[in-house]
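Entry 14. Structure prediction run on the chain below.
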Amino acid sequence: MRKKNKTQEIIENVAVVDIADDGKAVGKVSDSDLVVFISHAVPGDVVDVRVVKKRKKYIESIPVHFSKYSEWRVEPLCDCFSVCGGCKWQDFDYRQQLFYKHKNVSDCLLRIGKLNVSEIAPVLAADPTWFYRNKLEFTFSSNRWLTTEEMPETETVNRNALGFHIPGRFDKVLDIERCYLQPDPSNDIRIAVRDFALQENMPFYDLRNHQGYLRTLIIRIASTDEVMVIVGFHHEDSAIREKLLNFIWKRFPKVISLMYVINPKLNDSFGDLDVQLYKGKPYIMEEMEGLKFKIGPKSFYQTNSKQAYQLYKIVRNFAGLTGREIVYDLYTGTGTIANFLASRAKKVIGVECVSEAIEDAQYNSAINGIKNTFFYTGDMKDVFTMELIQQRGRPDVVILDPPRAGVHSKVIEALLLAMPRRIIYVSCNPSSQARDLALIQEYYWITAVQPVDMFPHTHHVENVVKLIRKI
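Output returned:
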């Protein structure tokens, strides 16, 4: 049954039956083939929804009334739930989160990729499921997202914020009092920085008009409890900059790396900018099985440190190293996997396009006394070639850990020319992983699949696939 008024369309009694691969709930309407995507609903709910976008075969909607609540609903932990763009599944029982992450992997590999997979292991659950991130980035804004209660007081309320972007609104930022993603002292640092900036009348950045001074606050907390803080400023103003940075340094002795970046660009990315050290060291250290890993301001490191260790152990187990193998670690980043495997391999060759990451990878090998790793910088399709293989040796094992877009077709071609005995494919996007695996399944058996939950209370899932050469 549908009801209309002048401004909106309401669809009643939509049964929520599934989860789409983007994490939204999927609803069905009786006697209709229409697919209804619903934000903030879980399988088992029966809801009335308001249509926000309509297409020929589907609609996108938000719930306006629940006729029945799912047995899998739980009370959200965070006060910002439903407004903040993160942790969208925190009203969903964690066991069911794992069920639908497993279903997503299965759908991608079997239904989309049409791969020959005999078994997909249960998703390796995260522990803990809160305070698991080692890195968070917050945004300063002079245009804070206002609550319903604040709307009538628009002219008088403080509009400055330090928090997360509202989904779909680049210029609106939700001010955060308590976030459950990163351990202490993350919340204390963010709140103290915000309050000090307000007290000192420091200009927060206007994301729409590109005016103001304070832009971003990045906090990295290693498993060793070392803390890095990076503050982004729109332009140089040494008096304000030093006042804020001195405040952070004196207030938080756990911060051993205090850095800043001047960013006059229209976006917040700083990969192409110089990051300046203000106090302390220009890096913090992660540790795993006695190995140390240098983390700089631009370093990529798996965001969930504890679960990353479980992931790397799976990779090592799948690789089946005996000490005689030549291993290629493609998309090596800061060489974490390469150095983690080095003690059980003859040698490991890592390739990465970010030069700063390769510098970190080389440093990590040096400080750990690892001498059988060799790292190369450049575009993967230009570096991983038969020339490199002739120079360093034909791979027995190749580790693939590409970005979300997956592996470039020329890299697949080079891989099939190299024909390693084993391939271990690690992916944060099972859909692109399935596409790539379909290109090589003629030559390889898929012998093991292990999904890993790196990001509880979100729809994201990491997946590790082991392949054995057929011939």
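Residues 2-73 form a domain with the OB fold (Dihydrolipoamide Acetyltransferase, E2P) fold (CATH 2.40.50.140).
Filed with the rest of this week's runs.
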